[in-house]
């Protein structure tokens, strides 16, 4: 049985594709030589060719940067290290051939497996966490808990401003190791943080992942990165992140129990229940003002427990049905004041119907505000593990909208969206580069799907009555035929 175990082990490892893309940079490229040469094309294979070029896996190429104009929210030029991502750090990276993938082309693109990445991988099926077997749920929660302490196998993050990335008179860039879950938090923080301009001068009208069309594509990539990391960590290539249907109305959070994502601590209502495995989790990247004033980046230092004094009310099921009826993906100015925009309705800056109302907060935004603590502050929200479940559900609604509207890249704005949000902008801070276009495709092409039944939109319920009349007549004819067959069969049996 030892041999069988080894065979099973080898099989499982062969099925796991190394991380497709993560952020900020692969450890092998976080070196003085790589940073100075602006090139991240790791050597691969026996011959040691960059990006496995000798084996036909990929090649080292110039990174394509989106040059189309962006919206007027961000007016500085050449100041923020996230502009024209990732040019400030690297201008050459691997581009993999066929279905090969990963920062060095040693793995497969999402959804593919095998030595040559020619076999479709069974999709990871994301389920409602309330409908999972206790065993599956425990497996998910255990893996998630382990990811909080397991150092990320491949990626590191910068802990200082770009200017100070390589301190004077040294050849040691300022990168640090970070755990898998904390990387997930850091990536979110880095994409929303202010432009660092010195004490009291942060430029705040900048956000590469919210208040624009990239909101849904960016968070899709964010979740995919974590899901892939957890597949590798757990050794289960079909591992899927579950979702929380937060559109249940009222002010009762059904997943907020110590068995699931943590209940309330009876001694201190702001903290998680003492029996929750998340009660000891500490947050990172919380002190945005301190980072701004000291021109520093979050370095993963722990800053106290998760705060979740949930009090507000949750979105209603009809809100989901209503936002699914909005026809346009996004509308000018492709921002948080867009009207008749599906993205803005789902993000929650307009009525679910798409009608713009400045004060309103619904759907995704309302689910965050409901948490009222760590999960309610954009830059720190990913610290609360419920963030994962809120965003998988948001992504499930996005997926449903894509299906119902047969969406293509033509539905996504190519230019004039806020910085970071144009169709071909490389999403910050993922590496190797991946664009909003790359995520604006059906999820089964990315290796996952949802076991979800979202409410039909009112448009479908309002189908012309003559269609229902035809359906009714057909139904009656079929039913009558069945009855006749059944009666005849019974008669024949009796005659025997
Ligand atoms: Cu977010």
TrEMBL record:
This is Tyrosinase copper-binding domain-containing protein. The lineage of its organism: Eukaryota, Metazoa, Chordata, Tunicata, Ascidiacea. One of its GO terms (molecular function) is metal ion binding. The chain crosses the membrane at residues 466-487. It comes from Ciona savignyi (Pacific transparent sea squirt). PROSITE patterns: TYROSINASE_1, TYROSINASE_2. Gene3D superfamilies: Di-copper center containing domain from catechol oxidase. Residues 210-227, 384-395 form the Tyrosinase copper-binding domain. It is found in: Melanosome membrane. InterPro entries: Di-copper_centre_dom_sf, Tyrosinase/Hemocyanin, Tyrosinase_Cu-bd. It is a single-pass type I membrane protein. GO terms for biological process: melanin biosynthetic process.
